Request: fold
Amino acid sequence: MFNNAKVEAFTAWHDLLVNPELELDAQERYDELLKFADGFQANGIIDSHERRTLIEIATVAYTRAVTVEA
Reply:
């Protein structure tokens, strides 16, 4: 079920994932995405399955970014 806190959390996470204007390299972006996911779960906004899904998406994005950089 989506509540306002979950929608806001997912929006913030997605913005960090896709915003090219942020001055973060691939590793910094990945680390921040993982921190967001951990914080969301710690605060009860998402469950462990949702956290895993966010981490999987962040990992794919990181892999693509470092492959392009190489």
